[in-house]
Amino acid sequence: MQTEDIQIRIEDDRTGLEIETLKRAILDNLFYIQGKFPEIATLNDYYMALAYTVRDRLIHRWLISSQTYTKVQPREVCYLSAEFLMGPHLGNNLINLGIYDRMRQAVQELGLNFEALLEQEEEPGLGNGGLGRLAACYLDSMATLDIPSVGYGIRYEFGIFDQDIHDGWQVEITDKWLKNGNPWEIARPEWAFEVKFGGRTERYTDEKGRSRVKWIPDRMVQGVPYDTPILGYETSSTNTLRLWSAQAVESFDFRAFNAGDYYGAVGNKVFSENLSKVLYPNDEQIQGKQLRLEQQYFFVSCSLQDMIRTHCDRRGLPISIFHEKFTVQLNDTHPAIAVAELMRLLLDEHGIEWDQAWHITQSTMAYTNHTLLPEALERWAVGLFGSLLPRHLEIIYEINGRFLNEVRLRYPKDDERIRRMSIIDESGDRYVRMANLATLGSYSINGVAELHTQLLKQDVLHDFAEMYPERFNNKTNGVTPRRFMVLSNPRLTKLITSKIGDHWIRNLQELRQLESFVEDLEFRSEWRQIKLAIKRDLANYIQEQNGIEVNVDSIFDIQAKRFHEYKRQHLNVLHIITLYNRLKANPNLDITPRTFIFGGKAAPGYQMAKLIIKLINSVADVVNSDPDVRDRIKVVFLKDYNVKFAQRVYPAADLSEQISTAGKEASGTGNMKFSMNGALTIGTLDGANIEIREEVGAENFFLFGLTASKVSQIKAKGYDPMQYYIANSELKAAIDRINSGFFSKGDTALFKPLVGSLMYQDPYLLFADYQSYIDVQTQVGEAYRDQDHWTRMSILNTARMGKFSSDRSIREYVKEVWKIDPLKICPPNEPCSIH
Ligand code: T68
Questions:
Q1: Is 25 a pocket residue for ligand 1 (Cβ < 6 Å)?
Q2: Using a 6 Å cutoff on CB, does residue 281 contact ligand 1?
Q3: CA of 150 to the centre of ligand 1 (A)
Q4: Residues 553, 631 share a domain
Q5: Tens digits of residue pLDDT in 237-272
Q6: Distance between CA 24 and CA 27 in Å, rounded?
Q7: Minimum CA distance residue for ligand 1 atom 2
Q8: 430 & 522 share domain
Q9: CA-CA distance, 51 to 93, in Å (whole number)?
Q10: What separation in Å is there between the alpha carbon of 447 and the centre of ligand 1?
Q11: Complex ipTM over 0.95
Q12: Domain housing 692
């Protein structure tokens, strides 16, 4: 097909990529968009002008993409996620447009500081951690691989809180990320949808004499889409991130107002606008709050209505082939209500019969599980669920009834199995189990690393995997090398590219070619110099932020991730205290100097996680100022860990701490980002660590600890942490040191909850893994002394990380799950044909 007819031909300051054009465009946007002249423009005005200059160039590609999709009507992926942890857009868009260096020059020629402008961008922190960041990496890869896709989520007015530290404690501060405006989004109020809540259902007979159901809600909210363009790397494909913002519905408001219920009307406005107000800051633990279910249903309903409108109205296609044109990937169970909502839309709004509706639904949905932790498995009290979504509860009962009949046929008289597989948990108070709903409603169910998928099939979804083995598959996570190497580590990128060219950026397996440079003395020296320069940058940042001077020749030993007991930041602390005790006992002890760096947020209601942060800061205070230590160890807690900051941290690490209790971390993705940037990993056989070790080689990975199966065995036998405490003098000394009040100015009560939990329960087996961890840390210290050997291991880590590009993950989803063909988008102003 010739596509000249869908070319948009504009040749002006909004599209040109030459330095002079870019300069003119920035000044033009400063003038016309910001309404400022240079003499009075603030840094933010210049940032906005620069961002609009970049956005203009995206929009051209975006509109060509969207016109092409309208014309070709390809199959599309809709990635439904309650979280998208995008991080700053500007730098990434410049990389993907291929004009990073040119733009820097343009900006400098205008007399502006490019780095300061990049820094000026407020981070859109619309996610908690790994799950939200994975969604963002996948958007980048889908666009890069020319896969027509939309990311659907919520435009939270306040994202994940900013973290401050007061007296060693975490303090949460509201994240007002929209305060200076968001140049990357475009509001589309004309494409809003209404979402119903509460009320009751009514049966009626339609004109064809069929029995139908009508939902009469008692509240209504409007979802307004805000669109952000997502450009791929070295392609014109530009997909959409569509985030829904909740607004009051005018007509609904007026009805109450006319009846004299002014407060009721205003109340509805408050209810509506609260919906998308704030992201729930809890990762891996659910709270069962009504507002959270409202948020989930709100964005799911808007998104499905949007897909159906595109399909039926814009493309004029019959609803019966909806599943051929759309596939929905559910990012965990947060959007799992989509199963019931699509059924409702098909049954009640489109008048489709049950069996066909179920066929369409089940052929549309695919579900990714991200956790096995029981406290993170979503379930909603039936009462709450029914009062908010009465029609959905009926549909779920019907799905469940039909399903359990099948189970009964297949496994007669197995009541236990029926109880386990039911969507409704009836073991006590009744709950809707969202994982069961998602599993049953999906044609594909996947875990996020080999071990995780295996445990998922063995444990949480065992009965389902037995009944529908063909639906289960693994998709090991990946991360985008554009943001986490090219953008965040320009020095290393330049060195790599000077040796092997730049194809590795879209085909990460090509990093393997670096292996042939391992024996090259000069290459190793350059590699080492680069790491040192990056460490110097981080050291300056630490000096600025924390006022702590660190030794750049020490091992930068970094643990950066959300705080959770299963991630075992406190095991890391036990190692620090052990080293400290050794130095106190023997001040002349020859140890490899280390800088322990921590970053991460704790859920605001998670007391134990917050206490671990306090412990780190308390240990830091003591260790950093003890003259006996003589700067051989330093402890640094860097506050407010987010994407922006992560990009600074990964490249600077020598050692990456991936020390979760085996079987608990579904995959991990930080582990990949560190290793790609040449850090060595100290880690357990958990999540993707196992696959990373397989790739980089056991000799380039510091392994310690129990395996997942050993962990369950020990637990089954009855684990007694006290035995380890009694038998291990160094462990005992470390624990006693905390207990004695040594780190808490004599306050022996402060860390009691933490120490007590370890000594008497230790649910995450720190004591059982302690000695192994300490031993391997000793090996790390020794290995670091041979800088040349360490550098070889570092190079091999980077060289062998090709598997962990999110491009690989997305290729697997495309081929094995979604079955979508790539669709090339014509570059602006170049006639081409669509394949
Ligand atoms: C993470 N999960 C996994 N959850 O812990 C991690 N949870 O192993 C994995 O690599 C990553 O997902 C990507 O697959 C999360 O990040 C959450 O953030 C979360 C948020 C809300 C509710 C529950």
A1: no
A2: no
A3: 21
A4: yes
A5: 999 999 999 999 876 666 666 667 777 777 778 888
A6: 5
A7: 131
A8: no
A9: 9
A10: 12
A11: yes
A12: 481-705+771-804
